[in-house]
Amino acid sequence: MQPSSDMFAPKLWSVLKEGYSGAKARADLIAGLTVAIVALPLSMAIAIASGVTPAMGLYTAIAGGFLVSAFSGSRHQIGGPAGAFIVLVAATVDKHGVDGLILATMLSGIMLFIAGWLRLGSYIKFIPYPVTVGFTAGIAVIIFASQIKDLFGLTLAGKEPGDLVAKLESLWQVRETVSPAAIAVSIVTITLILAIKKLRPHWPNLLIAVGVAAIGSFILNLPVETIGTRFGGIPHSVPLPHMPALSLDKIEAVLPAAFSFALLGAIESLLSAVVADGMTGRRHRSNVELVGQGIANVGSAIFGGFCVTGTIARTATNVRAGAVSPISGMAHAVILLLFMLLFAPLASYIPLAALAGVLATVAWNMIERPAFAALLRSSRGDALVLLATFLLVVFRDLTEGILVGFVLGTVLFIERMGRSVKVSPAARAALGDGNEGREHPVDYADPDVVAYHINGVFFFGAAATVGAVLDRIADTAKTFILDCSAVPFLDSTAANVIEGSLRKAEARGMRFFIAGASEEARDMLRAHHVGEPRVQFHDTIDDAFAEARALPFVGVAANGQSAHPAL
């Protein structure tokens, strides 16, 4: 069935249908200005850390950010370049160049659009909590490591390695090139960011800190590298839309990077939308969000930007600033565009050490320290998932860390769910349950009847445990009753285990009753040849016991045909 058009209507459409007043517009414009002030230094800093020009960071925030808000499934989502992508973007640029990065961004947008259209958004959110904490902390470590060079003003003869260990080794070898001026600018920037956040939390601490660092560096004529000295400044406008160079070989080469962009973009944007929901009490549309992220990534690539996603910090700022609709996010993109048109030359004076200080504080804030410590203490399984994800992200690959962490988390969940399924003799499980008020309570103590009660989700993870118990059916019993009234779901593996128990019962000439199974469970069992006349289904275990005693035992043939006419 094709999805209806209403199902994929962006939140902007919902807001406009509700009615958009002048008061709401003012609130959105103020919030948009606030977010733009935060996004301006961040967009340039993230782009520089990713190995591209600061202008590309602004292109991403302007084109991608506008489209994210216009087509988002969340009222408050703010899109732009994200610190989580730094390592992936840098690796893609290093391997495929800027053209390859833009092509990978476009392909990731197409993947996200398809994922949303196929309604996969609800499944992407099923990422274990230890995985999100682990990969966020790993990304933070990588971001900080990528800023050491500019924080200390180090000079490298060649290109800075991407691998963490190799990076640290190369930076240590040039430690004598450290710049006291760059260190001073970094310290002043970080100190101002932290002090303003504590003393004046509503002030734009990032912009103020970068502005003070730029003005101080210019007045004192400090020998520090700036955006102007490294990149020649930023242009006065966004480039005209154009398609990246396309070829089958190039597409095939950048597909792994595009998949990584799409996977991380989906996770990051949906997490950001969940954060916004928690702050506002609203509910986002996850599939619409993926469609919107897909459109935004294609648009960002067409305008010369790179991968864009929903950003948690900027989205939270948008909510706290009083935004009421996606128009605030669109306004933030327009304000960034106006900055490029009117004040681009001023960006040339921004010291790279100041932007490195900005990202250093971002990296510190990304690490969820209380959550990290709590997961290490909670259980061995959670600690394993957390550390595996963290270490793989830091020392191997971001996508590999997420996938391995997800697999480990899934295995851990299966193991825990499997242990939660309990199998017990029905006499102990059911005596006293349902007999209150009965005129003639059912007595389950009968040497000719063996009854077992299963409690929990009966699936492949519990198959070995349940099967081992069912294998111990007494040879002397004439009737076997399996009580499934406390089984909310059983899968094909469970049905196969029951079918195996049925075959053993038939070989021993036992009758086989199943009590309390839901219609869905009965359909699954019948699909695996566990149905009439081989077994009898009863609504309750009491009915099964009553039937077992009412029928004189004649036996069941090995071919499954009962020797008793009632069966």
From TrEMBL:
The entry's keywords: Membrane, Transmembrane, Transmembrane helix
Cited SUPFAM superfamilies: SpoIIaa-like (SSF52091)
Organism superkingdom: Bacteria
Record keyword Transmembrane present: yes
Domain STAS: 439-548
Compartments, as annotated in UniProt: Membrane
Annotated transmembrane regions: 29-49, 55-71, 100-120, 127-148, 178-196, 203-222, 253-276, 401-418
Membrane topology label: Multi-pass membrane protein
Protein name: SulP family inorganic anion transporter
Organism annotation: Rhizobium alvei
